[in-house]
């Protein structure tokens, strides 16, 4: 595990640009989404399986809902869009009760105006912008790419490739910080070097741990 005191602009100097995943990586938001999902799934009568939910970390809300409905053969009296809206409304309403920056925010702050930085997230862009603003990192991060800005979100590489495009940096010159398996797959598929923040920084996403 890397010593957090080494989180300076010189960390990983071989890369010209930095891409952070948001939830569970740059931002501690596991309980925000767990709370929102528990309320949503209970409301719509969809079973809660913590292990399955954790495996779907990084998957956009509406796609997660579709997977759960199919997996549990649930007959919904609402559209997936309505499930999505219900959950996202809870996230927006309760955001300030749960989110806070992780130690990686120190790395981001240290690299301000030194290397371009982007967030590539499975969350929707509007939500990500609000969270980053609340956590005081708006003036640090150059670009935010949410699931709604790409044709195929994680585990496809599109999110990270779009980040690289916006930063005008070749994919192989980008380093990605990720906590979720699907995000790690996405970064590798994009041809980028990826750091597993759980292994390197001991950042544990407390999302559906039990």
Alpha-beta classification: alpha/beta
- Beta-strand percentage range: 5-15%
Question: What is the CATH T-level topology of the largest domain?
Answer: Rossmann fold
CATH superfamily of the largest domain: HAD superfamily/HAD-like
**Helicity, in percent?**
40-55%
For the terminal residues, how far apart are their CA atoms?
25 Å
**Order of strands across the biggest sheet?**
5-4-1-6-7
| Overall pLDDT level | 94
The parts where pLDDT drops under 50 for at least 5 residues are none
Q: Give the name of the CATH architecture of the largest domain.
A: 3-Layer(aba) Sandwich
Number of domains: 2
The number of distinct β-strands equals 7
Name the helix and strand elements from N-terminus to C-terminus, one letter apiece. EEHHHHEHEHEHEHEH
Gross morphology is globular
Computed over alpha carbons, the radius of gyration is 17 Å
CATH class of the largest domain, anyone?
Alpha Beta
Major sheet size, sense and barrel closure: 5 strands, parallel
- Chain oligomer state: single chain
């Amino acid at each position: 595990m890397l010593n957090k005191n080494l989180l300076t602009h010189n960390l990983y100097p071989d890369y010209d640009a930095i891409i952070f995943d948001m939830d569970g990586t740059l931002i501690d938001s596991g309980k925000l989404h767990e709370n929102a999902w528990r309320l949503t799934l209970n409301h719509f009568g969809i079973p809660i399986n913590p292990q399955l939910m954790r495996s779907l970390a990084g998957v956009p809300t509406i796609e997660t809902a579709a997977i759960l409905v199919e997996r549990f053969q649930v007959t919904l009296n609402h559209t997936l869009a309505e499930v999505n809206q219900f959950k996202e409304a809870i996230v927006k309403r309760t955001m300030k009760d749960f989110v806070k920056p992780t130690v990686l925010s120190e790395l981001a702050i240290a690299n301000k105006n030194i290397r371009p930085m982007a967030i590539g997230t499975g969350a929707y862009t509007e939500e990500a912008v609000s969270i980053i603003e609340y956590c005081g990192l708006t003036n640090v991060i150059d670009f935010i790419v949410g699931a709604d800005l790409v044709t195929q979100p994680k585990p496809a590489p599109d999110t990270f490739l779009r980040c690289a495009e916006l930063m005008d940096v070749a994919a192989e010159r980008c380093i990605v910080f990720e906590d979720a398996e699907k995000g790690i797959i996405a970064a590798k598929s994009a041809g980028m070097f990826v750091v597993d923040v759980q292994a390197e920084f001991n950042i544990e996403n407390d999302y559906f741990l039990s």
